[in-house]
Amino acid sequence: MDLADLRQHPHFPTRFERGVVYATLKRPEVRNAMTRDMVAAIGTVFDAVHDDREVRAIVLRGAGGHFCAGGDLKEMIAGGLQAPAPGEADLVAAHSRAFGEVMHKAGRAPQVVIAICEGAVLGGGFGLACVSDVALAKADAKFGLPETARGLPPAQIAPFVAERIGITAARRQCLTGAQFDGAEALRLGLVHEGFVDEDELQAKLAAVLQQVMNCGPEANAMTKAIILNVGRKDMAEVLDDAAQKFATAVRGSEAPEGVAAFVQKRKPKWADPA
């Protein structure tokens, strides 16, 4: 893993501690609205850790009490009003698609992705919450998809919203631009737990991370891949692939250690990363 270039990134700093990458969206003056450079940095993090099983979880949080207010609209629109000349690439479409690719990478990361949703969780920030494995939301967080109210479709976000909360709920949220709080996000299944203050957040985050650490990192990666194939592949194909993954796990290094730890009533070696 090489995240050295991102440790001091002005708008997306990261740190690695005891098996966890902590990554912070950091433009608090604009509620952490994402620039193209930030989107590229997010993608770099997921590329860098993809094959590194020392990284067990990735925690995404925003600075200044907000998760993310979406994309930087000023940057998004600048230079995009004129259609490309024949034969030229459409840079607006390319930049839009780049964000979709980053969300796809985040959603399929072998590690457990945890989103801390507070303050503004809008547009692209909403999308990042939708591709997380575990999402914790502050009670007064504001979720929403305001793109259509700006005359834009949530083009790269809507498919992940539909996967997360279902077509019916996604249609309502995408087509009204309405905002809702953390309690409604919990009811919709967008997030998994709520919190009211920093102390409760840290307690719940610590509990989730300990649960993650109790699981074999390769077993988690395999399990996530199996789950994500559901609905994308024929069920027989999903089950065939899952059987092969199970066989690989049985013959791997984690299963013998995990079973031995269970029999000996101790924690497996991976449960407490140095």
Concise structural overview:
The chain is an alpha/beta fold and 274 residues long. It is 46% helix and 13% strand. The chain has a 6-stranded mixed sheet, with helices on both faces. A two-stranded parallel ribbon has the order 5-7.
SSE layout and pairing:
Blueprint: H1 4-7, E1 14-17, E2 20-25, H2 36-49, E3 57-62, H3 73-77, H4 91-107, E4 112-117, E5 120-122, H5 124-130, E6 134-138, E7 142-144, H6 158-165, H7 167-176, H8 182-188, E8 193-195, H9 198-213, H10 217-229, H11 235-250, H12 254-263
Parallel strand pairs: 2-3, 3-4, 4-6, 5-7, 6-8
Antiparallel strand pairs: 1-2
Helix pairs in contact: 2-4, 4-5, 6-7, 10-11
Could you please describe the fold and organization of this structure?
This protein is an alpha/beta fold. The chain has two domains: 4-213, 2-enoyl-CoA Hydratase, Chain A, domain 1 (Alpha-Beta Complex), CATH 3.90.226.10; 217-271, Lyase 2-enoyl-coa Hydratase, Chain  A, domain 2 (Orthogonal Bundle), CATH 1.10.12.10. The protein is built from twelve helices and eight strands. Strands 1-2-3-4-6-8 form a six-stranded mixed β-sheet, sandwiched between helices. The protein has a two-stranded parallel ribbon with strand order 5-7. Strand 2, helix 2 (36-49) and strand 3 (57-62) form a beta-alpha-beta unit. Helix 4 (91-107) packs parallel to helix 5 (124-130) and helix 10 packs antiparallel against helix 11 (235-250). It is globular, with a radius of gyration of 20 Å. The mean pLDDT is 94.
